[in-house]
Amino acid sequence: MKVINAKLRHKDGLYTVSYQQGTFDSIELQTGLLNEAVSADVIDAKQQLLMAPLIDPHIHLDAVLTAGEPEWNMSGTLFEGIERWGQRKETITFEDTKQRAKKTVDMLTAHGIQHVRTHVDVTDPALTALHAMLEVKEEIKDKVNLQIVAFPQEGIESYKNGHGLMEEAVKLGADVVGGIPHFEYTREKGVSSVHFLMDLAEKYDRLVDVHCDEIDDPASRFLEVLADEARVRGMGERVTASHTTAMGSYDNAYCYKLFRLLKRSKINFISCPTESIHLQGRFDTYPKRRGLTRVAEIDRAGMNISFAQDSIRDPWYPVGNGNIIRILDAGLHICHMLGYEDLQRCLDFVSDNSAKTLCLGDQYGIEVGRPASFIIMNAQNDYDVVANQAKAVLSVRNGAVIMRRQEEQVEIFA
Ligand SMILES: [Zn+2]
């Protein structure tokens, strides 16, 4: 099998990319445009961009497609979202969760996403959503590689048997340990929740991804606790701080000191720009904060940060369609990252950087010997993807085509 006439990121010319038995076996520069007939064995990329699959490193597949059930979030705040979700949770069933999650996975697949990290609420004595998601993970494995985070939506220390439920979730098969320290009832409970979740991850050899300081409160400083725990234990590359929106409200003197620790800790960051600009800044009049973490500054400091969509039509965020390029577009705007250099490499924030966060290692990337998983975008390069709001037109996973989009035709009559 081979793809001809492919553009590759950051490379001049056109390439032929070949693969056999689900693995790339050669990537060669062509001398010019090839005119081979398309067949079952030959795909013509038509001078479009062939790249590693897109990734959504932070979503809540157990909550998707529930907006307005039973009530809409009228204030638009994170905290009312948690209340509305509390109501919806009472009617969650195993089948309902599976059906919504699988429908959403198809929406993600349609946009060229092949790796997903989903948080699953485990503050439920029956762990219904977790059981459902473990089945979903198995049933969708030909489309998407799913990492499941044991996520304590209502707290670890502040929810009855929070510790027990987290450990049970990990034993049942959660890949990643989560947390929500800023939502715990007291600062001390927030700190002890971080110690607990890091112990749990170390004990069971799991990754860590914490909803950390998702609030505009400049006094919310659990990121330093998480980063230092990661540093001391030497676990940084396996640890992620999601959101960290309070950093958008920290003063520069504290942030300067904090960055020294963050760099040494080697932890990863995830920003959910559409979600955060919607949920944060809700208690401000004007000037109104953007409510995002310092994405550009984290990136410029050489740390790893990526973008994610967080929600699709749930109590926290009423829209979304699975298209991570929409998130990238919004994130670059909100974070003042539409400069020339950012545009040349902006797909890193929804591909390579996210792969590092998910610890995909040599299971990801367009290189000989790696799994033949790739997408073709209807664009030429990173800049073109954002400027033209490009879409994935083909998605191939381990050598098998899993999605093809018909190119749209526009006719202008004037
Ligand atoms: Zn989240």
Automatic annotation (TrEMBL):
<keyword id="KW-0378">Hydrolase</keyword>
<dbReference type="GO" id="GO:0046872">
    <property type="term" value="F:metal ion binding"/>
</dbReference>
<dbReference type="InterPro" id="IPR032466">
    <property type="entry name" value="Metal_Hydrolase"/>
</dbReference>
<dbReference type="InterPro" id="IPR013108">
    <property type="entry name" value="Amidohydro_3"/>
</dbReference>
<dbReference type="GO" id="GO:0004131">
    <property type="term" value="F:cytosine deaminase activity"/>
</dbReference>
<keyword id="KW-0479">Metal-binding</keyword>
<dbReference type="GO" id="GO:0006209">
    <property type="term" value="P:cytosine catabolic process"/>
</dbReference>
<dbReference type="GO" id="GO:0035888">
    <property type="term" value="F:isoguanine deaminase activity"/>
</dbReference>
<dbReference type="InterPro" id="IPR052349">
    <property type="entry name" value="Metallo-hydrolase_Enzymes"/>
</dbReference>
<feature type="domain" description="Amidohydrolase 3">
    <location>
        <begin position="41"/>
        <end position="402"/>
    </location>
</feature>
<dbReference type="Pfam" id="PF07969">
    <property type="entry name" value="Amidohydro_3"/>
</dbReference>
<dbReference type="InterPro" id="IPR011059">
    <property type="entry name" value="Metal-dep_hydrolase_composite"/>
</dbReference>
<protein>
    <submittedName>
        <fullName>Cytosine deaminase</fullName>
        <ecNumber>3.5.4.1</ecNumber>
    </submittedName>
</protein>
